[in-house]
Amino acid sequence: MSSANGMNAGTLAVRPERWRRLRDSPVFYSFTHNRTAMLSAAVLLAFVFATLLAPLLAPYDPWDLTAFDIMDSEIPPLGSAGADTRFVLGTDAMGRDMLSALLYGAGISIVIGVFATLLQAVIGVSVGLAAGYFGGRLDSLLMRIADIQLSFTTLMVAIIVLAVFQATVGLAFYEDFALIVIVLVIGIAEWPQYARTVRACVLAEKKKEYVDAARVMGLKPATIIYRHILPNTFSPLLVISTVQVANAIITEAALAFLGLGMPITKPSLGSLIKNGFEFIFSGAWWITAFPALVLVVLILAINLLGDWLRDVLNPRLYDD
Amino acid sequence: MFAFLIRRLGQAGVVMLVISVLSFSIQDELGDPLRELVGESVSEDIREQLREEMGLNDPFFAQYWRFLKKALRGDLGTSYFFKRPALDVIMDKLPATIDLVIGATFWILLFSVPVGVFAAINPRHWLSNLAMGLSIIGISVPVFLTAIFLIYLFSVELGWLPSYGRGDTVTLFGGWETSLLTRDGLAHLLLPSISLASVILPLFVRMIRSEMMEVLESEYVKFARAKGLTKRRIWMLHAFKNTLLPVITVGGVQLGIMVAYTILTETVFQWPGMGFMFLEAINRVDTPLIVAYLIIVGLIFVVTNTVVDIVYGLVNPMVNLTTKSS
Lengths: 320, 326
Description:
The structure holds two protein chains of two kinds. By secondary structure, chain A is mainly α. Chain A has helices at residues 2-9, 11-24, 26-32, 35-52, 54-57, 98-134, 136-151, 154-169, 171-189, 191-206, 209-216, 221-229, 234-257, 269-277, 286-313.
């Protein structure tokens, strides 16, 4: 309510007031007193900036296959014998600069994670709100579908869909549309996570007096759902969102490792790992190790931040 | 109770039907069965005639109905690559996957319960913090990376353990080939089973810990404490038993998830099981084998979920089966 009043008073006054509220909030206090949370947030911020600025930071263009020189292939990173100062982290078997590939690859992984999660949230939140608010037959039908969908692992569904997609449209077409299809598959397969959480929240909130008050005032169900109930479901949503982003990135990496994720022409972190796996046995460890390290650090930072959020916001993730 | 059973089985049947329709429609999308049978050299007229004879021009549901009738008799088509019934091929590969799942389940049961219970009872102990820290690292490392790392360390660098294959097997009960009973087989199983367990073990540790902590806060545990019962008795008899209830449900679902992860583990270790076979079938566009795999895996998922639901209903006195409607 107070933020709505602030809006009316003038946008200029809102900003310092909001900032003060954030600064005085228990969440902010906990954040500044938790080293793990701050470190994870810093790592994530660094990731976001590095990937946004990848075109400026990367010494080479890792997507331009014609620019690679086969004579530069499998150069080890600086510090080992045979290193080349042009390639700080070495090159892969095609002569691609690992540093550039990592900057772009992390970006692709993050894009997939964020957009797949957004899609899950849009579908899941709408379904959850409808099921929770209207209840009855609609609710039991939607939740049954969610149960069944959940019992099939996302990875399994994604493997099947992408395999069929790859086999039907052919590799050339696949390379152009892989990103969109991967986001769609992971986004659609995981919606029940959001739907269940939101529904449980709605069921709990619906009983509260402010909802009754809104109804008595004669507000439409849509207004009550979006303006009154939805904002109260944000903290559990925030917590599952962190987990979901991490899971989406891992799922894409696993798909890429099976040859069903991002193609090697536009590699994600997972595709880079797959690309290096066969060279592990011949001693070219850096082609696998660097993308693996970046992937684990990225996921770990997201998960640690999610853990901290869960402890601070302490949402009751209802099970039903 | 009876009504619940019927409803639950009915739902399982509906899900299986949906899976079979979806799997069958994949068959339509992928490749041309005629070309697989007669090759490219046959003229278009004869092709059309054969197509008509085989019923490939029939409407979708007529074809599906034929497929369903055959599937119910256990005939899931013939693999293009192996030139054998797809079901037989899968049954040949199944023991290897089951060995892997048994190995992983062994690690999960061995570690999750003691570690989870310890961390719940002593939340501030440094060992609990260590276990929680390790579990979040375990969740953050994808299973294929764990597998690659284990291979690099124990096979490439140290040379202690084999990096691929199944090793020696023994045949049990007329046809059950297992590597669980030979030294060589167990050595081959060690790394794959640890990698497979590494996905699920951290989730179990965290789940058992948080469930048990919640139970320890409950009224009846406080009451038991007030009665003066020993700590050990409260933990084991009162708290742990009730912790197990939700663990059963989630555990059952995780078994299905494990089957999906076997595809990754088997691919890294070249383990000759169903998952590795499925990926090869995809690369070879061996449609009947893909469809058969999907139906078998769907069946495994549906059966485990149904059994878990029914067991949960029977074990949990709070679930009133007669009025359960959702």
